[in-house]
Amino acid sequence: MPFSNLGLSDKVLAAVEAAGYTTPTPIQEQAIPHVLARRDVLGIAQTGTGKTAAFTLPMLTMLEQGRARARMPRTLILEPTRELAAQVQENFDMCGKNHKLNVALIIGGVSFDDQDAKLMRGVDVLIATPGRLLDHFERGRLLMSSVELLVIDEADRMLDMGFIPDIERICKLVPFTRQTLFFTATMPPEIRHITEQFLHNPVKVEVAKPASTVSSITQRLVKSGRESHEKRDTLRRLIRGADSFKNAIVFCNRKRDVAQLHRSLVRHGFNAAALHGDMDQSARTAALDSFRNGTVTLLVASDVAARGLDIPDVSHVFNFDVPVHADDYVHRIGRTGRAGKTGTAITIVGPADSKAITTIEKLIGQDIAWVADTAHADTDPAADRSEASDDHREPRRNGRGGGRHRHRTPRDEEQHHRPPDQRQPAAARQGQNGHTAPAGHRAPVTRIDEARRRPAPPPPRLHEPLEQSGGHLPAFLLRPVRSKA
Ligand code: AMP
């Protein structure tokens, strides 16, 4: 069915054509006529299915009639994260370019005053995260009594993030007679309860998971040790050895690990940015922009921050941690293999993860193949040593511990004085994946070269058994040694 049969206005159809959309996706085809008929819609769909345009296009058509009044938005879209809210705004900008509508973004982490000024001017489409929306409401800066249409997007993610009480409150603040469009990828009991409470005789529209999660993504599992530094070793080898690598999102389960892994990757010469919920909005936007425009090739992210991100050209997803919820696995790997491209998703699996993997395989209805890890040759023992201690410390300010007193190698010194993009291993690196070539791909070197490059032997790591001694290390060697500051 063409877009022109869905009942959309000429202005919207022109914008859709200009955006390069030729045929509606199943969720658009099924939902748009009902939205235009002013029915409540319960859409069971996840990102990647085209669900955003399933509500923005009919909203634009409907908003052509009428005008907004100061502080009284006509429509309200709730999103769980700032990034998703910004993405919806982009969709309005693209599809609403023939309209003169006021679209405002009300999200945390940015100035209240600018948002307040926008609300004052009158808003046709208000896209908001629940917390900041309620802040404005409580300050008396916003009235919700003129909202004709409410969109609740990514409801199951709202549940995960603890936003359900806010959603319930907002649903009671908007008029009872409004139209409601409700989107969720899954229907846990709490979500079902909300739909029963706040939707009026909704049309249920359900679309399958985007085909990309199955067919266009190569999924693999790789065994690793339990410790963080072992997983980081594995990750670096995977990135360096990845075929057709362009860029990757690396997922961690915890924000703290996002920050630590990011530091580690940068220390190893990778071009990486971090994205997690504790960063302020400008840092989040900067990280995302630099990944989108290719300035950085690795984005280390938490689930919440990266959920639903629409970046069309991500070649790889690495799960540094196996996600706690199997659903998150589907969301994570769905960041690659988008927009007709193929992608690869590799999950690093520690000894304690086998149960979680079984649950994931059950959810996706297929077994994921294991691949062997490549040789244990890493190229930057100096960076390794520095971060081995990272596992055990918070940054110290008293000069003890940390990187300052670790044993320095000549190569260290050399790296110290070079700009980051010229540091070893960057010199050897500029081949595959914008980084150090994998062990098997290094240019041939003479023995003398090799000897020159070889750094002084690192001091033994206290948390790791000595491989040469078969792991049998006398206890006194494991005792921490005090060094003079
Ligand atoms: P969403 O599920 O809303 O995050 O959309 C996923 C991606 O599909 C976005 O990049 C949209 O721009 C794109 N998209 C949405 N609708 C269509 C369509 N009818 N044809 C082609 N691409 C689309």
Residue runs with pLDDT of under 50 for 5 or more positions: 375-381, 388-432, 434-485
The number of distinct structural domains comes to 2
- Overall 3D form: globular
Bound ions, cofactors and other small molecules, one mention each: adenosine monophosphate
Described by strand count, sense and barrel closure, the largest sheet is:
7 strands, parallel
Structural class, from helix and strand content? Answer: alpha/beta
Strand order of the largest sheet: 3-4-2-5-6-1-7
Distance between the termini: 74 Å
* SS field, number of helical segments: 20
What Rg is obtained from the alpha carbons, in whole angstroms? 26 Å
Q: What percentage of amino acids are in beta strands?
A: 5-15%
Based on the coordinates given, report the CATH architecture of the largest domain. 3-Layer(aba) Sandwich
Instruction: Please tally the β strands and state the result.
Output: 14
Remind me, CATH topology of the largest domain? Answer: Rossmann fold
The level 1 CATH classification of the largest domain is: Alpha Beta
Helix fraction by DSSP (H/I, runs of at least 4): 25-40%
CATH homologous superfamily assignment of the largest domain: P-loop containing nucleotide triphosphate hydrolases
The overall pLDDT average reads: 78
